């Protein structure tokens, strides 16, 4: 095949544009990205060579080379890793595989990100970072095991296109050749490269080497100097997770986190330990400080990188962590697993089960400590990952109490934005309060002003405000905390405001019957309310039904749900209800009265955040009523 011009996918152009025009203050990160790719490529080759030794092509020493050509103004990053076929090069270097691209670009635009490499790193557009320092990039690559004549050369100057051509390459692997821009020529200097490698890639497992020329006195003529070129390794290469804690600085921990997570911000917490005994392993885990943009997408990869005897076996070993801890990043190394372990085998491997249990405990313990020792940091962390952590209540029966200890909620007694734990709530409960009250809703403001809280306000009872979509399921599943049951403010019968309830039931019995008859297709029951103080009516769900927010969520996902037992609650102390009772006494068959019942029901729907059944009819009836009532003065 001959040279072939290709057009970049639109999102690549956008990223390139961003790289070239907006992200310049941290441009040295390009090297870290290219070294990281080279190291990944060697990991793959090394792993594949375990089963097919010929792929090592002579068992050469794995390494990443930096080659400087000052005359040509180029810097080459060379690896002897897995390499790429022509198709792989098109796929990897012409598109962006992540399905969240569009959302990501929107995020960048909406945040007016002009100098924010954190986001780029998260997104894994590493290779394109080369264009921050180069105006032309040439990639020469050959797949391990392929014929030397079947290599390919990819080239682009970021003008929206790239070319692909066949070429020859004696050694397997990839050369990324950067034609440096005028203002990036310092990247040809040894000291500069050494500094960048040390700062960002010191822990890379493979040597990052460069030919360094030094002059030394000529032994034959002391007046003269001779130059000597030697290959020097710039990185210390220590597998940080195998080192002693005392030997590692906070910066080293942070840099390694950035390497494994592709995040550019420091982690919130680092967990580093070695387990000895029947199962031996080392773990270096991190709790990130910010939620990755793609954590809710299907593309999101779960689990730490798995090493077995210093060989990277897989990037993300999901069998090592429960899904509700999927935000945790890091590395686990065990010598108790076979090198050729597959994902399937890992799923029910005893060693993995032991490691998973230990990691889960360590992470939950760390969160508990963080909550105790640094409430502010924990609150911040919870804001990012609490929604995910609480899934554990549903999925991890054994640890649900431990996870419940970690939950935080706003309440009617906390300042906006401040959260409380369940234990603190219980501590504040007056002695005669038996249950933990909570209300679910979309946000605090609308939830707090809803009629469901009227009696709680009047009696000064604290109610937890839950605004995550899954809260209702989580709390129903949990049932109780420290032997105190949960009671929803919007579900079931409440007896808080029930003075003279029995009397009222009798007094309003006939009117309630009429309402029930009128609304028989809409509600299962009409009853005197134990929760209303200012509003005339509200709709409540049955004790064991899902709350309306959940019902809507399931319906939006196209799921049919069994019809819940909706109940219309009526406030007997409201003027309107008293007037309706009078009207009923005067004419129990009044058509007007029936109309009012319908209007009341629609109003209850509105209060719940729903639409009236027939908005046009509702508006008309309301206007009519207003016309009757509007008077001057
Ligand atoms: N030196 C290399 N050898 C082999 N393949 C490479 C090399 N550099 C890049 N690639 C291929 O190009 C792809 C894109 O690289 P890029 O750095 O843009 O993203 P990534 O590495 O996939 O994402 P992330 O940075 O999140 O890991 C890689 O996944 C890999 O398939």
From TrEMBL:
Its main location: cytoplasm. ATP binds at residues 33, 37, 79, 84, 99-100, 122-127, 174, 343. InterPro entries: HATPase_C_sf, HATPase_dom, Heat_shock_protein_90_CS, HSP90_C, Hsp90_fam, Hsp90_N, Ribosomal_Su5_D2-typ_SF. Residues 1-343 are annotated as: A. Residues 26-184 form the Histidine kinase/HSP90-like ATPase domain. Residues 553-633 are annotated as: C. It is found in: Cytoplasm. Transmembrane segments: none annotated. SUPFAM superfamilies: ATPase domain of HSP90 chaperone/DNA topoisomerase II/histidine kinase, HSP90 C-terminal domain, Ribosomal protein S5 domain 2-like. It comes from the Bacteria. Keywords: ATP-binding, Chaperone, Cytoplasm, Nucleotide-binding, Stress response. GO terms for molecular function: ATP binding; ATP hydrolysis activity; ATP-dependent protein folding chaperone; unfolded protein binding. Signal peptide: none annotated. Pfam families: HATPase_c_3, HSP90. GO terms for cellular component: cytoplasm. Belongs to the heat shock protein 90 family. Homodimer. Molecular chaperone. Has ATPase activity. This is Chaperone protein HtpG.
């Amino acid at each position: 095949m001959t040279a072939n011009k290709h057009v970049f996918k639109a999102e690549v152009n956008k990223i390139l544009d961003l790289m070239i025009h907006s992200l310049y203050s941290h441009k040295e990160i390009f090297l870290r990205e290219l070294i990281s790719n080279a190291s990944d490529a060697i990991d793959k080759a090394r792993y594949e060579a375990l089963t097919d030794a010929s792929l090592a092509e002579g068992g050469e020493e794995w390494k990443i080379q930096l080659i400087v050509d000052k005359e040509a103004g180029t810097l080459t990053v060379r690896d002897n890793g897995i390499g790429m076929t022509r198709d792989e090069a098109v796929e990897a270097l012409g598109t962006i595989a992540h399905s969240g691209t569009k959302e990501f670009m929107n995020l960048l635009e909406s945040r007016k990100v002009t100098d924010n490499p954190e986001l780029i790193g998260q997104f894994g557009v590493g290779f394109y970072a080369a264009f921050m320092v180069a105006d032309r990039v040439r990639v020469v690559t050959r797949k391990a095991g392929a014929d030397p004549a079947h290599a390919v050369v990819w080239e682009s100057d970021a003008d929206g296109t790239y070319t692909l051509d066949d070429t020859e390459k004696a050694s397997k692997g990839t050369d990324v050749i950067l034609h440096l821009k005028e203002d990036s020529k310092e990247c040809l200097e040894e000291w500069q490269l050494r500094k960048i490698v040390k700062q960002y890639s010191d822990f890379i497992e493979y040597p990052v080497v460069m030919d360094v020329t030094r002059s030394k006195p000529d032994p034959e003529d002391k007046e003269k100097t001779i130059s000597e070129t030697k290959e020097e390794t710039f990185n210390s290469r220590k597998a940080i997770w195998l080192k002693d804690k005392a030997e590692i600085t906070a910066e080293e921990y942070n840099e390694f986190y950035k390497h494994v997570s592709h995040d550019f911000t420091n982690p919130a917490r680092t967990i580093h330990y070695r387990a000895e005994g029947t199962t031996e392993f080392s773990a270096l885990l991190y709790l990130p400080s910010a939620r990755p943009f793609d954590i809710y997408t299907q593309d999101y990869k779960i689990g730490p990188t798995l090493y077995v005897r210093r060989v990277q076996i897989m990037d993300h070993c999901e069998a090592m962590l429960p899904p509700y801890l999927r935000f945790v990043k890091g590395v686990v190394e065990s010598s108790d697993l076979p090198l050729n372990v597959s994902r399937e085998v890992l799923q029910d491997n005893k060693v993995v089960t032991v490691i998973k249990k230990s990691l889960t405990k360590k992470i939950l313990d760390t969160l508990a400590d963080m909550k105790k020792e640094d409430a502010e940091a924990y609150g911040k962390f919870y804001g990012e990952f609490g929604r995910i952590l609480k899934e554990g209540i549903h999925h991890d029966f054994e640890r649900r109490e431990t996870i419940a200890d970690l939950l935080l909620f706003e309440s009617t007694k906390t300042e906006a934005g401040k959260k409380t734990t369940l234990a603190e709530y219980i501590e504040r409960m007056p002695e005669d309060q038996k249950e933990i009250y909570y209300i679910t809703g979309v946000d605090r403001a609308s939830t707090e002003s809803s009629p469901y809280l009227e009696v709680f306000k009047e009696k000064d009872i604290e109610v937890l405000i839950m605004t995550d979509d899954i809260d209702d399921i989580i709390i129903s599943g949990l049932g109780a905390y420290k032997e105190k049951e949960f009671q929803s403010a919007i579900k079931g019968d409440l007896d808080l405001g029930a003075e003279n309830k029995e009397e009222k039931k009798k007094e309003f019995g006939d009117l309630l019957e009429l309402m029930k008859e009128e609304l028989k297709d809409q509600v299962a029951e009409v009853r005197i309310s134990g929760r209303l103080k200012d509003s005339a009516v509200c709709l409540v769900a049955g004790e064991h039904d899902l709350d309306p927010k959940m019902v809507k969520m399931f319906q939006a996902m196209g799921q049919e749900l069994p019809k819940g037992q909706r109940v219309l609650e009526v406030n007997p102390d409201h003027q309107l209800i008293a007037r309706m009772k009078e009207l009923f006494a005067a004419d129990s068959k009044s058509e007007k009265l029936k109309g009012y019942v319908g209007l009341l029901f629609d109003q209850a729907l509105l209060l719940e955040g729903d639409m009236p059944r027939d908005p046009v009819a509702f508006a008309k009836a309301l206007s009519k009523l207003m016309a009757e009532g509007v008077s001057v003065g």
